[in-house]
Amino acid sequence: MFVQTALRVTNYQPRTSMPPHHHDEATFGIIVGGSFRERIARGERAYARGHVTFCPAGMRHSQTFGEAGARQIIFAPRDCWLDYLADCRTKLEEAPHAYSLLFRQLGDRLLAEIRNGDGFSAVACEGILLEIIAAFGRSGEATRSGEKPPAWLQVARDFIHENTLASLDMSQLARAAGRHEIHLARVFRRFFGTSIGAYLRRIRTEHAAELLLKPHANVSDIAFACGFASHSHLCREFKAHYGVTPSAYRSRMA
Fold first, then answer.
1. Are 5 and 78 in contact (CB under 8 A)?
2. Burial class (CB in 10 A: 0-12, 13-18, 19+), 148
3. Are 149 and 199 in contact (CB under 8 A)?
4. What structural domains does the chain harbor?
């Protein structure tokens, strides 16, 4: 018999925080909007859209949400999923997390299916969750074989998220990170798989997508508010990222 996994879409208000707490059951979260910082497993992490997180049952953690707030889809894993991840040598007790472009795409698909809510959505959501778990297991294998991003690189990425809508240049980022511009650009691509410029365009495009959920917001105004040169500039970047125009995206998400 088919058993649907319970999904919860949670929205967090901008510039708010959640005090230390724990959950009685293990949970996964896939961030589908905004950003936040979390203290967990004796460390602090920065999450944004495209991150998947795992929190073991009983582990205390706290969050601080960014300027745009945050949105994530939370679900409890099945025992067989945890068994699969254990077979992948994923260290679940260390509250692992992962980021990839694939998780952004899967998160968007999952959110769209939740909103759709027709007779096929339960099966579709279950299939997407299995893709997420499989990709999470693979990402754990990649993480074990590689280095963690250095602290100064995390500082640079946080600076980008905190100043997404400002006029940024490489010299500002290099000063924030305390590294030479060339070194920063090379190491950023090595760990995050993209250039700093492409990363910034992606974040601005995702912020535009959040603003498009407001029904009366003008697309041209959104373009300028998110740092794009024109309406057409936003449309070009938006279609490259989401595969549809801003107007089509708004209609789909309505």
1. yes
2. exposed
3. no
4. 7-145 (2.60.120.10), 151-253 (1.10.10.60)
pLDDT of residue 88: 82
Residue with token string 């089509």: 248
Contacts of 13 (CB under 8 A, 6+ apart): 65, 69
pLDDT digits (tens, 9 = 90+) for 171-185: 888 999 999 888 888
Token readout for 193 is 């798989």
Q: Which residues make beta-bridge pairs with 55?
A: 27
Confidence band for 110, pLDDT divided at 50, 70 and 90: very high
Calculate the alpha carbon distances from 177 to 15, 128, 186, 187 in Å. Answer: 23, 37, 13, 12
CB 67 within 8 A of CB 74: no
Over the stretch 42-87, which tens digit does the pLDDT of each residue have? 788 888 888 999 999 999 999 999 888 899 999 999 998 999 898 8
Q: Nearest 5°: phi and psi at 212?
A: -65, -15
